[in-house]
Fold this protein.
Amino acid sequence: MKKTSVFISRILRHKPEIIGITLDAHGWADAAELISGINATGKYRLDRSMLEEIVRTDHKQRYSFNEDRTKIRANQGHSIPVDVELKTAEPPEMLYHGTGKKYVASIRTEGLKPQSRLYVHLSRDVETAMNVGSRHGQPYIFRVCAGEMFRQGYQFWISENGVWLTKAVPAEYLEET
Ligand code: HQG
């Protein structure tokens, strides 16, 4: 189930074409097409109740169904340009960004960039940032002066699953931890 879930996130955020499906402008995939496309790979098995369970139990709440549950999308994390109708919001004064030590020097000069994704992802607490950073080897955490950025006119969004997003963070808004 875990592997299937990781595969679903790859499909819904980055590469729907590998199972021959498309996302609409708002990032929705047809749930029945997703299920049959995934089964057709021969590598993963998925049925409706497994998909329901994955969506319900995902510990980061990565996915949502639409109202009549015929469509599914990832709540954030996309590299393909879809509009998942994120809500703009005023961020807390301080947010955190966990990264790998190997990126620190570059981030100090360039600030945070979205790289392959549509947004820079920020965490509301140090623990979450530490988990995100650990995905890139030795973790390192930057504090992001989000309140100050917001007052200067930078926009922030919060995803359905509580991840803070912004387009980029200039280096002057970063603090070392
Ligand atoms: C780094 C996971 C050099 C950035 C997580 C990060 C998150 C720079 C890496 C979500 C840089 C991109 C996103 C610069 C940024 N120079 N490196 N100027 N600016 N970087 O995976 O934030 O489990 O695209 O620090 O929990 O690690 O998939 O982004 O290390 O919420 O649901 O470039 O993915 O969620 O890496 O993770 P990523 P991320 P899921």
